[in-house]
Design a protein that fits this description.
By secondary structure, the protein is α/β, with parallel strands linked by helices. 45% of the residues lie in helices and 13% in strands. A 7-stranded mixed β-sheet has the order 2-8-7-6-5-3-4, sandwiched between helices. Strands 9-10-12-11 form a 4-stranded antiparallel β-sheet. The chain binds pyridoxal-5'-phosphate.
Length: 484
């Protein structure tokens, strides 16, 4: 078959692909949430060399159906609540194929994909209360969004020409501020930016797992007195561990008083600005200098889709812009060059048409559809927390916030923290491998806990009941079997 397929062949194979998509999504609820890849299959995949000659598409699709589709990550299933991973919006799935059919680079230019990304960014400005003069980009996820935002903060605040000289001539030491509950990507970004994780001031979190604003203020004042240069405060709007939302309004006030950049990590919780319960608290993200939000989490856009918004568009451009002669355009918004290039505002040059799947998923749901799905997930998490509270053999381990519930299995025979942790570790592994439901774990104040994060428009009360029944059945069995 030649590289350039006929329309008929594209249609024939495309229909097979659509059947695979429909079968996958509709059969998931009847399948185990997770089953590990059999070692023979993993070995076979690893030992099969790249094909020398073309393989017929029917054969390729058969291999997908036999060896790949049966071993999903688990998300997409109504009882998958691990990490922060959602099922995909169907229009987002199709959008990925359509985007690939057009296959533009969204570095810039005057083609439709660029204008779709501009539109999507505008939708998020509206959602988060950012001014039209701010700038935004779609990136791979919250990690890239945070790295991008903190790069702009560094450019403005480090006091030297960091693009020319790096940090070596810096007159003063630097500091970043985030709570003990901040996502690891902020630390990774600070390490990559050359500050070193030693520059992070870890601000304690209270019993509600929110950053202590008084401790933040004290840390900033202490550093000011010691001639340490603050670069940025990272507040979290929906921590990964417990869903806690830092007091954005108070923190924005502190940052304004100290003239410090405020980055709000709303990768997980940002979309809940649409929710009935958390809308008010999250609207204060509009006071930030930058925000990260992941459409591939609670907006059900297929991975990867992250978003960064930066209030000061000029600073963002001057932190990143480098236009060699082979990229220079006429600068005319109506010509080939189009509006200022996205590649001047971030690290990537060739950029995929991520915007289409965001654009299509947002139309599939509409803001009202998202609000309903998010409100539902929050209510479902509340139901889960209530059931945990009323069960004698379960303990709620953190105040539920957004759609995260942390809990564990308890039994009077378990003596001490170590025994409880060991039992819950074993329980979780058996639950995950059993395929009935999939949750994950975390550590809260050094204690191992089970963690469910419901960002899933397919989940129901019956699913929560089934997960808890499975947890308790496994817990009882393990307790009866005694310590390992
Ligand atoms: C998921 C998450 C991130 C990281 O985002 P990626 O999309 O995985 O890169 C950052 N912060 C929070 C709060 C998150 O939940």
């Amino acid at each position: 078959m030649p590289a350039d397929w006929t329309a008929d062949e594209i249609r024939r194979v495309g229909r097979l692909v659509v059947d695979l998509i429909a079968d996958h999504l509709s059969s998931l609820p009847r399948e185990p949430v997770f089953r590990p890849v059999p070692p023979e299959l993993a070995d076979r995949l690893l030992s099969t060399p790249a094909p020398l000659d073309p393989v017929p598409p029917d054969e390729v699709l058969r291999a997908f159906q036999d060896a790949i589709e049966p071993y999903p990550f688990g998300n997409g299933h109504p009882r998958f609540w691990g990490w922060v991973n959602s099922p995909p919006a169907v229009m987002g799935i199709f959008a990925d194929a359509l985007a690939a059919a057009m296959n533009p680079s969204c570095a810039g230019g005057n083609h439709a994909a660029v204008h779709v990304e501009r539109q999507v960014v505008q939708w998020f400005r509206d959602l988060l209360g950012f001014p039209a003069s701010s700038m935004g980009l779609l990136v791979s996820g919250g990690s890239m969004a945070t790295l991008t935002a903190l790069t702009v903060a560094r450019h403005l605040a480090c006091g030297v020409d960091v693009r020319a000289n790096g940090l070596r001539d810096a007159p003063r030491p630097f500091a970043f501020y985030m709570s003990s509950e901040a996502h690891g990507c902020a630390r990774k970004a600070i390490e990559l930016l050359g500050f070193g994780s030693g520059s992070i001031r870890t601000i304690p979190a209270g019993a509600d797992y929110r950053m202590s604003v008084d401790a933040l203020e004290a840390a900033l004042e202490g550093d000011r007195a010691r001639q340490v240069q603050p670069i940025a405060v990272v507040a979290t709007a929906g921590t990964t561990n417990t869903g806690a939302i830092d007091d954005l309004d108070a923190i924005a006030g502190v940052c304004r008083r100290h003239g410090v950049w405020l980055h709000v990590d709303a990768a997980y919780g940002g979309p809940a600005v649409l929710s009935t319960e958390y809308g008010d608290r999250l609207r204060a993200a509009s006071r930030a200098d930058s925000v990260a939000l992941d459409p591939h989490k609670w907006l059900f856009v297929p991975v990867e889709a992250g978003l960064v918004l930066v209030r000061d568009a000029g600073a963002m451009r001057s932190a990143f812009s480098l236009v060699p002669p082979y990229l220079r355009t006429d600068g005319s918004a109506t010509g080939v060059g189009g509006p200022p290039w996205f590649s001047e505002y971030g690290f990537q040059q060739t950029r995929g048409f991520r915007a289409l799947k965001v654009w299509m998923a947002m139309q599939q749901f509409g803001l009202n559809g998202y609000k309903a799905a998010i409100d539902d997930n929050i209510a479902l998490a509340r139901y889960l927390a209530d059931r945990v509270r009323s069960a004698p053999d379960l303990g709620l381990m953190a105040p539920p916030s957004l759609s995260v519930v942390c809990f564990r299995y308890l039994d009077a025979s378990l003596n001490g923290e170590e025994a409880v942790a060991a039992l819950n570790r074993a329980l979780l592994e058996r639950l995950q491998l059993g395929g009935e439901a999939f949750i994950t774990s975390t550590e809260l104040r050094g204690r191992f806990v089970l963690r469910a994060c419901i960002v899933n428009y397919r989940s129901t009360h019956a699913d929560v009941d089934r997960m808890l029944d499975a947890v308790r059945a496994i817990g009882r069995e393990l307790v009866a079997a005694g310590p390992p």
